[in-house]
Design a protein that fits this description.
The complex is a heterodimer of chains A (270) and B (216). Chain A is an alpha/beta fold. Chain A is built from 11 helices and 6 strands. Chain B is built from 8 helices and no strands. In chain B, helix 2 packs across helix 3, helix 3 packs across helix 4 and helix 6 crosses helix 8. The chains are: A alpha/beta (270), B mainly alpha (216).
Chain lengths: 270, 216
C-alpha cells in the first residue's frame, strides 16, 4: 500500500494510458448525449439557405489540434453537405493554412467546387485589425486567395464584398481572438456567430452564449462527438468519446479513493 | 527641427487622433471619417505584419549572442533553434508557400515534426492536469467539500455518457456553468472592459503615457 501511495502519480498515469489504449482498441460505443449549445449550433447552420455565405475562420494552431480536430472536421462536413451555400475560409493564425490543407480533404465527397462554392483566403496577418479590415472590405483587405488568384477571378466572390454579405460566422476559439470577432464582426454587423472551442476557454465564451451574441458552440472532443451524432457520421470524435468517458470514470474513482484514504488517516486534533 | 520631433506632444496628439477617429467610426457614418479609420486600421495591420520581421531579427540577435558567448548549457539549443528556423524558412520559400505553393518537404515538416511535437507536449499536459485535479480535490473542509461536489457535477455533465447515467446531471451541470461560472466570468469581463475603457480614455487624453519612451 505504501509503495502504491509513493508511486501514486505513476500508477494514475499508467492507468490512464491503459484505459485510453483499451478504449481505442475495443470501441464500446457508449451513448453520447447532445447538449443544448451543440444542438443550437447545428440548427443555426442547418438553417442556411442556398446562396447564403458562411465565413469560416480557420484559427487553429497545431498544439491544440488533438482536442478540436474532430469537431472541425464534423462542422466542415456539415457545411459542405448543405446544398447551395458558399463558404469563405480565412485564418488569423500562421498555422491555419497548413492545417486547412490537411483537413479539407474530408469534404471532397460532397462535390463543392473551389472558387465557385468555397474560397480560402489563407493567413490574413494583422490580428484584430485585419479582421476589422476584412469585415469592412474583403477584397481590399485581401485581394488574392491563398494560391495567389485575384478574388475578382473567383466566381463565388462576385457578390461577397464585406461582412454585410455573410449569413453565419464560424470560428475556432483558442484564446483572445474570440473577442476580436465579437468586437469587429458580431457586434457591428449583427451576424450570428458559432464557435468550436477548446475546453479551457469554455468559461469565457459562456457569458456570450447566455447573452445571445454567440448562437451556439461545441467544445473539444465531446462537442465533436455530439456534432457527429447530429450529422449522422461516426468519425474521430465518436471513437474518442469512449476513451473520454472512461478516463472521466477513472478520474472520479481515483478522487473518491484518495478522499476515503484521506479521511481514514488519523489526524492530530487540537 | 530635431528638437521639435523629440517633443512628447507629437506622439500624444497622434495617439489621440487615431483613438478618436477609430472609435467615432463605429458610431458615425460620415464617409471621410470612415475612410480615414479604414486607412488607420490598414496601417495597423501592416505594422503588425512588420512586427513579425522585427521578431525574426530580435530572435537572431538574442540567440546569436548566446552562441558567440558559448553560454553553458544554452548555446546548443540556440544553435538548433536557428538551424530549425532558417531551415523551415528556406524550405518554405523553396516550396513557394508565400504564394500558396507546397511540396513534400514542407508537408513533412508540418505533418511529422511540427504536428507530432506540438501534440505530444499538449497531450502530456493532460497527465499533469489529471494529477493536479486528484490532489486538489480533497474534501479537507466545507469549502473544499463544496468544490469537490460541484466538480463531480461538472465531470458527469462533461463526460459524453454522463447524462445517460442520470438525466439530472444535465440541468445541474448547466446551472453550475450558466449561473455560477458564467456569472463570475461576466463580472470579470465587465471589470476588464470598464478598466480598458478608462485606460483608453486616459491614453487619448494624454494622461497615460506608459507607451512613450521612459513613460514620461
Amino acid at each position: 500500500m505504501k509503495t502504491l501511495q509513493k508511486n501514486e502519480t505513476k500508477v494514475i498515469n499508467a492507468a490512464i494510458i491503459i484505459v485510453i489504449v483499451f478504449a481505442s482498441l475495443v470501441p464500446t460505443g457508449l451513448p453520447i448525449t447532445v447538449s443544448e449549445a451543440t444542438t443550437k449550433m447545428y440548427q443555426g447552420l442547418s438553417g442556411l439557405k442556398p446562396g447564403d455565405v458562411v465565413w469560416f475562420s480557420f484559427d487553429q494552431v497545431f498544439v491544440v489540434l488533438p482536442e478540436v480536430k474532430a469537431s472541425i472536421q464534423a462542422v466542415l462536413q456539415h457545411l459542405f453537405m448543405i446544398q447551395g451555400i458558399k463558404i469563405l475560409i480565412t485564418s488569423a493564425y500562421a498555422d491555419g493554412p497548413a492545417i486547412y490543407e490537411g483537413m479539407i480533404s474530408v469534404t471532397n465527397k460532397y462535390g463543392k467546387v473551389y472558387g465557385t462554392d468555397y474560397v480560402f483566403l489563407g493567413y490574413v496577418v494583422g490580428n484584430e485589425m485585419s479582421i476589422a479590415n476584412l469585415a469592412k472590405d474583403i477584397k481590399t483587405a485581401c485581394p488574392v486567395d491563398n494560391y495567389g488568384t485575384p478574388l475578382s477571378q473567383l466566381p463565388m466572390m462576385n457578390n461577397v464584398n464585406s461582412a454585410s454579405d455573410i449569413a453565419r460566422y464560424v470560428t475556432i476559439t483558442l484564446g483572445p481572438q474570440f473577442y476580436w470577432y465579437i468586437r469587429q464582426v458580431v457586434a457591428p454587423y449583427k451576424i450570428p456567430m458559432y464557435t468550436i472551442s477548446v475546453g479551457y476557454f469554455l468559461s469565457e465564451i459562456m457569458p456570450f452564449f447566455a447573452s445571445g451574441q454567440l448562437g451556439g458552440y461545441i467544445v473539444g472532443l465531446k462537442g465533436g462527438a455530439e456534432y457527429e451524432t447530429l450529422i449522422g457520421t461516426k468519425g474521430l470524435a465518436s471513437r474518442g468519446a469512449d476513451a473520454m468517458s472512461l478516463v472521466y470514470g477513472l478520474l472520479m474513482v481515483t478522487i473518491v479513493a484518495v478522499n476515503i484514504n484521506y479521511w481514514r488517516k488519523p489526524r492530530g486534533g487540537k | 527641427m530635431s528638437d521639435i520631433l523629440k517633443r512628447k506632444e507629437i506622439p500624444i496628439v497622434i495617439t489621440a487622433f487615431v483613438g478618436i477617429v477609430v472609435i467615432l467610426s463605429y458610431f458615425v457614418t460620415f464617409d471621410p471619417l470612415q475612410s480615414t479609420a479604414n486607412t488607420i486600421t490598414s496601417w495597423g495591420a501592416i505594422i503588425v505584419a512588420s512586427m513579425l520581421f522585427i521578431g525574426l531579427i530580435n530572435l537572431c540577435q538574442v540567440h546569436l549572442n548566446r552562441i558567440m558567448k558559448r553560454e553553458k548549457g544554452v548555446w546548443p539549443f540556440s544553435a538548433w533553434l536557428l538551424v530549425a528556423m532558417f531551415g523551415t524558412i528556406i524550405i518554405g520559400l523553396w516550396a513557394g508557400v508565400p504564394w500558396g505553393g507546397t511540396n513534400d518537404s514542407w508537408v513533412f515538416i508540418y505533418t511529422y515534426i511540427n504536428t507530432s511535437i506540438s501534440q505530444t507536449i499538449f497531450s502530456l499536459f493532460g497527465f499533469y492536469v489529471i494529477s493536479a485535479t486528484i490532489h486538489a480535490l480533497k474534501a479537507r473542509n466545507l469549502e473544499s467539500g463544496i468544490f469537490l461536489i460541484s466538480s463531480f457535477i461538472i465531470f458527469f455533465w462533461a463526460m459524453p455518457v454522463g447524462t445517460y447515467i442520470w438525466a439530472g446531471f444535465s440541468p445541474l451541470g448547466d446551472w453550475v456553468m450558466n449561473v455560477l461560472t458564467a456569472g463570475a466570468y461576466r463580472g470579470i469581463l465587465l471589470g476588464i472592459s470598464l478598466g480598458l475603457i478608462s485606460f483608453g480614455i486616459r491614453v487619448i487624453a494624454g494622461i497615460e503615457r506608459g507607451y512613450l519612451r521612459r513613460g514620461d
